[in-house]
Design a protein that fits this description.
Largest sheet: none
Helix content: over 70%
Number of domains: 1
Order of helices and strands: HHHH
Number of helices: 4
Distance between the termini: 30 Å
Length: 111
């Protein structure tokens, strides 16, 4: 497999991992990809996917805590839609242009 195709595949897998229903796979897939590749763009996409998942997790905790004042109930549908739509957009973007790093909007970059 040539370098461009490999970059597309690994970057797309990193961004598609939040769509997996198994909680641990969401983080494990990008970590494994970071470990097996030397490509800096793929590693940056993997970090971005992990940051996205961590942010979703934190936002979910905040939404849960806000359910006690009935605001969190309104946040759950938004989080659900974001958790599906943003990774799909990311996969499409990295497949269209494998030379760029997709940056998720509205997240804190922890690393």
């Amino acid at each position: 497999m040539d370098e461009k195709k490999q970059r597309q595949l690994f970057s797309a897998l990193c961004h598609a991992s939040p769509l997996l229903s198994f909680l641990l796979l969401t983080v494990i897939v990008p970590i494994i990809i970071m470990a097996v590749t030397d490509d800096s763009i793929v590693k940056a996409n993997a970090r971005e996917a992990i940051n996205f998942f961590i942010n979703l997790f934190v936002y979910g905790i905040v939404a849960f805590l806000l359910t006690f004042v009935f605001i969190g109930v309104l946040l759950y549908p938004v989080l659900f839609i974001v958790s599906i739509v943003f990774p799909i957009i990311a996969v499409i973007k990295v497949l269209e242009n494998p030379e760029t790093i997709y940056r998720y909007p509205f997240i804190f970059r922890l690393f």
